[in-house]
Write a structure and sequence with these properties.
It is a single chain. The protein is of the alpha/beta class. The chain has twelve helices and seven strands. It binds thiamine diphosphate and magnesium ion.
């Protein structure tokens, strides 16, 4: 639980830093996860290394727990020459092949059908693994949610559908998203279990995901889990939440902060002294600062690399575009 707490703190510190870096123009875009740390860390800890992850675009803490160094996250946010996606993917849309983390697809819900397809492949290969799709309350209204859950139910795929219901889909509140009483109950229509839980409760998340994973690997099929949380920050750095929700609502949700809750539980259990807690936050701030500094100090991607990786041998048209681009970029103009 102390390890989980440390991850949650690192995620929170990274989140706060990224929001301010974007405002300073040092990164282009960021989607914060503050308020969703217990749901993400509890889930990631309950999964196994060989499982496949299909995130949305807010799963920073999941990536950290899977072993992605902070440095790699920042390399992607900056889009430098160390970025595994070579600066070609939207910031914050990171994927890591060696950790079975698939690159997010921005169209809402599309990762859900991908996770089901990968689970069907695992079934046929008799791989004893599970796949997990992360998505929000808004994504439960997408086509892919229904297609994905139906396939999963029919074929009994080893898939976990982890819905982080953070109460908002940008400016659309949960009450206007669906007439269903809960999002989890939508699994009834597809013939498999749905679970609603308090996503601020690390242990509840860890247990539910662990059980869902065990069921999946035993061949008992999928589970839909609705982790009820709250998005403390803006939807993304492009959003102004003051236009659609009150400060009082946010303040009330912050009373249930998952990090404060776990800190209290650990203190009551006698395993987190105030001084140790302070050290955890300070260490996290230092690690985050160091990692970002290293990423920012790394040379940018060579713009000409844009023309690589599509054809083994560049077509004459592509070659001409590349030369034109190189000439334009050299004279300081003409870049698209
Ligand atoms: C198909 C599609 N429609 C609309 C959008 C624009 N969009 C981006 S995020 C988002 C809200 C998603 O809300 P939710 O599923 O609750 O996830 P959250 O952002 O709250 O984590 C929308 C509508 C999109 N990316 N794709
Ligand atoms: Mg949402």
């Amino acid at each position: 639980m102390l390890d989980a707490y440390r991850w949650m703190v690192v995620a929170r510190v990274t989140d706060e830093r990224c929001l301010s870096l974007q405002r300073q123009g040092r990164i282009g875009f960021y989607a914060p996860l503050a308020g969703q740390e217990a749901a993400q860390v509890g889930t990631a800890l309950a999964m196994h290394a060989e499982d496949w992850f299909f995130p949305a675009y807010r799963e920073l803490a999941v990536a950290l727990v899977r072993g992605i160094p902070l440095r790699s996250i920042f390399d992607q946010l900056v889009g430098n020459s160390q970025d595994v996606s070579k600066g070609r993917q939207m910031p914050n849309h990171f994927g890591f092949r060696d950790k079975n983390i698939v690159v997010p697809s921005s169209p809402i819900g599309t990762q859900i059908t991908q996770a089901v397809g990968a689970a069907m492949a695992a079934q046929r290969r008799r791989d004893p693994i599970a796949t997990i799709a992360f998505f929000g309350d808004g994504a439960t209204s997408s086509n892919d949610f229904h297609a994905g859950l139906n396939f999963a139910g029919v074929f009994g795929t080893p898939t976990i559908f982890l819905c982080q219901n953070n109460q908002w889909a940008i400016s659309l509140p949960r009450e206007k998203q669906t007439r269903s009483a809960t999002l989890a109950e939508k699994s009834n229509a597809y013939g498999f279990p749905g679970v609603v839980l308090d996503g601020n409760d690390l242990n509840a998340v860890y247990r539910a995901v662990g059980e869902a994973r065990a069921r999946a690997v035993r061949g008992e099929g999928p589970t839909l889990i609705e982790a009820q949380v709250y998005r403390f920050g803006p939807h993304s750095t492009s959003d102004d939440p003051h236009r659609y929700r009150s400060d009082a609502e946010v303040a009330a949700a912050r009373e249930r902060d998952p990090i404060q809750r776990l800190a209290r539980e650990l203190a009551e259990a006698g395993v987190l002294e105030a001084s140790a807690d302070k050290a955890i936050w300070e260490t996290a701030r230092a690690e985050v600062a160091r990692a970002f500094e290293a990423a920012e100090g790394t040379p940018t991607v060579d713009p000409l690399s844009l023309f690589d990786d599509v054809f083994e041998t560049r077509t004459p048209q592509l070659e001409a575009q590349r030369s034109g681009f190189a000439a334009g970029a050299g004279s300081g103009g003409g870049a698209p």
